[in-house]
């Protein structure tokens, strides 16, 4: 449970795309529900008054800062079972050979499911992810285990029971549209019931409608889920225009692009998050923005399964809500810092290709590391309709404490090296600079993460 927090030190966040704010010597105080009630420079008269009345204040040591937690917009929880394996096939073959088998295995073994999901929660916390949008499996019980584990771990989790009445694996699908729809309804009710008796600020888990993607869902099922999302005010997640074989399959089977299929089913809404979208052109991105739908950009898995990179800069220019996803296990890394790095590198490759083809028109397709940090924090939160991802009065305190260097030892932490500090030049070390944070962005890892909070409650970071 959260309690009153009082923290003094350096904070950093990106309230707008590309706008990194480093707030030196700030005072942050929360109430009992984990909501920020004071956030001002510590030397302000009001802050000094708060310091006299607040509980003992934690003073961050030099070399340490508070950042928002990461938001992972796309992760297949059951596929964590084989993370780091099975990336050798095209998407539609990969699903049959790896994904469906793993999901079916967890659906048949509740004890294994709880073990896998518990380890997943611990790994997410270790890697600084405080909010996660999860694809589950088709069986209700397994998804309720996932929801229970995430709630117990203190993570802000959106859990989706898969809806799929079509499958290339006969043993892994729901028997009919009616069965699939009723199962989705039932899961929503039971998932909401898990936290119904808790105070509202402690209800961290929420059900999400999850038609896997167009190839596994009949038109009638998609339309029924679209109506359910409206009547129950439910978020929706799926995959859209992800890979060449998937796009061609939908065109051949449905006679339309999958974006059109989702749209006519009422599933492109301001509550919808669609993963990938690599085959969407600019007019399609304009339509996504018109619908208010968000996109989960998964650059690592796109490198394996898509013949096209996502048009990230164009999506941002069109005002589309975009965040980052790891797409485990289509992406092999659970660390969203790797998603940030890959997002930048892919965008720079796109810019390089543009220059080779047609020269530069002065408008770059690349993003920089500060923009990627926005996507990993505020961008993902905005996609989910959350007020997190930044620090401010009235907002939930979802944060991570990151240590860049140890001033007393004159050493960087983990993979970070600060040679001037080692040489004895500590006169400016109390002021964290943008260069220091960039070094962490490039080289940092779990060793730099000291603490994690969600809704003001401190999470256990287990050494694994």
UniProtKB/TrEMBL annotation:
Cofactor(s) recorded in Swiss-Prot or TrEMBL: Zn(2+)
Record keyword Zinc present: yes
InterPro entries: Amidohydro-rel, Metal-dep_hydrolase_composite, Metal_Hydrolase, Metallo-dep_hydrolases
A single GO molecular function term of this UniProt record: guanine deaminase activity
GO biological-process terms attached to the record: guanine metabolic process
Domain Amidohydrolase-related: 66-400
Transmembrane annotation, as ranges: none
Metal-binding in keyword set: yes
Keyword set, alphabetical order: Hydrolase, Metal-binding, Zinc
One GO CC term, this protein: cytosol
UniProt protein name: Guanine deaminase
